[in-house]
């Protein structure tokens, strides 16, 4: 089995880090992430529609942490290959039924359930490292974001050692 594209590699390879992004509402915020993955040939256009309909039907299941949404749908909803996009909004957006506004979104496209779980774990490491996202919000460049992800991974490896 081939090595999965990890969070950092995917963000670099797909040019999918968006900082100070502007969105008027949660749908636009999600579209920023899915658009960049469509452009990178990671997902089809319909992946966006699948996420929006799922949120409309099931509620804001993608809001998994304060100020954070993990925007994702199923592999069969148009995932071409595994990939990630990271969006940090200039102004937070609200999801219906969630008190905290969201300004950090990771779009996760998992090619299969195994890669989906693996991707989720990589994102969890970053959240654990930068729990209130203050470090992430302070990043001004893509390189700073990559350094932050490296630091989060190093912290996880130290714990495992």
Automatic annotation (TrEMBL):
Q: Which GO terms describe its cellular component?
A: cytoplasm
| Biological source species | Vibrio halioticoli NBRC 102217
Stored PANTHER family: ASCORBATE-SPECIFIC PTS SYSTEM EIIA COMPONENT
As for subcellular location, the record says: Cytoplasm
Tell me the InterPro entries matching this sequence: Ascorbate-PTS_EIIA_comp (IPR051351), PTrfase/Anion_transptr (IPR016152), PTS_EIIA_type-2_dom (IPR002178)
> What are the record keywords, sorted?
Cytoplasm, Kinase, Phosphoprotein, Phosphotransferase system, Transferase, Transport
Q: Which GO terms describe its molecular function?
A: kinase activity
User: Example GO biological process term?
Assistant: phosphoenolpyruvate-dependent sugar phosphotransferase system
Q: Which residues form a coiled coil?
A: none
Q: Where is the PTS EIIA type-2 domain?
A: 10-152
Q: Which SUPFAM superfamilies has this protein been placed in?
A: Phoshotransferase/anion transport protein (SSF55804)
The molecule here is called Ascorbate-specific PTS system EIIA component
User: Pfam families, alphabetically?
Assistant: PTS_EIIA_2
Role description: The phosphoenolpyruvate-dependent sugar phosphotransferase system (sugar PTS), a major carbohydrate active transport system, catalyzes the phosphorylation of incoming sugar substrates concomitantly with their translocation across the cell membrane. The enzyme II UlaABC PTS system is involved in ascorbate transport.
Q: Which CDD domains match?
A: PTS_IIA_fru
């Amino acid at each position: 089995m081939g090595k999965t594209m990890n969070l950092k590699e995917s963000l670099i390879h797909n040019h999918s880090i968006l900082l100070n992004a502007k969105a008027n509402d949660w749908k636009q915020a999600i579209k920023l992430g899915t658009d960049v993955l469509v452009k990178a040939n990671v997902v089809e256009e319909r992946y966006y529609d699948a996420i929006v309909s799922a949120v409309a039907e099931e509620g804001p299941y993608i809001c998994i942490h304060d100020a954070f949404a993990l925007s994702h749908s199923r592999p069969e909803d148009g995932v071409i290959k595994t990939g990630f996009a990271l969006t940090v909004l200039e102004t937070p957006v609200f999801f219906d039924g969630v008190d905290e506004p969201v300004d950090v979104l990771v779009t996760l496209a998992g090619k299969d359930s195994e890669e989906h779980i693996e991707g989720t774990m990589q994102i969890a490491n970053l959240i654990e490292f930068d729990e209130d996202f203050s470090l992430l919000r302070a990043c001004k460049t893509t390189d700073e974001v990559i350094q932050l992800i490296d630091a989060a991974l190093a912290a996880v490896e130290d714990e495992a050692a």
